[in-house]
Amino acid sequence: MISIIDNQLVQNGKRQKKYSDNGHDQKVELTIFEPPQSSTIMTKIKDIIQYLETFAPLAYQEEYDNSGLITGNQHSELNGVIITLDCIEEVIDEAVEKKANMIIAHHPIIFRGLKKLTGSNYIERTIIKAIKNDIAIYAIHTNLDNISSGVNKKISDKLGLLNTKILRSKNNTLKKLTTVIPKENTENVLSKLHEAGAGNIGNYKNCSFRMEGTGTFLPSEEANPTLGEIGQLENVNENRIEVIFPMYLKNKILNALFKAHPYEEVAYYVHDLENINNDVGSGMVGELPKSMKPSEFLDHVKKNLEAKVIRHTALVKESIKKVAVCGGSGSFLLGDAINSGADIFISGDFKYHEFFNAENRIIIADVGHYESEQFTKELIYEKISKKFANIALHFTELNTNPIFYA
Predict the structure, then answer these.
(1) What is the rounded CA–CA span in Å between residue 97 and residue 302?
(2) Domain harbouring 297, CATH code
(3) Given strand 234-246, what is the order of strands in its sheet?
(4) Are 98 and 82 contacting, i.e. CB atoms less than 8 angstroms apart?
(5) Range of the domain at 1
(6) What's the pLDDT tens digit per position in 64-84?
């Protein structure tokens, strides 16, 4: 008769059981394949936010804007995401129904400060409902408009435009770091600066400038020098390094410098640059693969942007080749569109008298605010799904356009 003496011993990945056979111990080795202990780390709301802000940093939003986390606890575990152009009460209801605790909207539900929350209008009611149901609302608005892979690139892709570039580039968004590094440490420090985001200029990465020279220093009695001795003047063969970086990465770049640099005291300085940043700005301009007649191109726009109506100025161009676009309200870019040599400018929210400003130099095509930006939902989905494969992403099933056409 066999009876179990010791239930289980695990050694080298094999489970062992000890049996007794007629009073004699007998060890029987069994190999049992068991699923490993779960090591899945739950995605948190802040993980999504941090990723979104790597390519659409809040520093790139316009001054009037209110992008970012509007309601909710960023440290909460993520159950699911609703992607929408506008966050209204019905979208909150949809999130509750689908058990999603985060909504990513293009337009912020709050543009200006709220002084009370009484439910007197749709903004207050939406916020109250989101808080009651512990739903985070995150807006990614003009910061997504203002990047070269953002809203206007999506519109351009829908229209089949090639050779696209920012219509009005921003300045004062770049800084330059200058530092000196011992020659033998230069490559290591530079690589860490590049990893942190320094040295990216347009389609080129790891850009830097270096110049060799001699650095001198005299360590005091309180110093702990990497090179040289206390009280003795030291001469070191060094490289002067210069790299450009986006202003919002300043802390990250400096932390990388201090961590990688061998010196106890790092010599560096940071310059503000007025250079135009061609990767950041408003609108976009590109070219069609081949010219189209104006009426033919308007049909093309209507179909591909799913616009029910296009308000436009006189078709003063014989053909359309160069096209300027701006999602949402783009009348402020009309002059830039004309100066770019575009044949037509596609946007929304043009007022009556603003159409006169075309002055027969360009065609204005107003497709509507919602119509020009509705594919932003696809853009957000594409960005997130490439990074996170383990979360439930839902497009809203609601058409949040408040405008109807008779």
Answers:
(1) 34
(2) 3.40.1390.30
(3) 209-217, 234-246, 174-182, 268-273
(4) yes
(5) 1-34
(6) 999 999 999 999 999 999 999
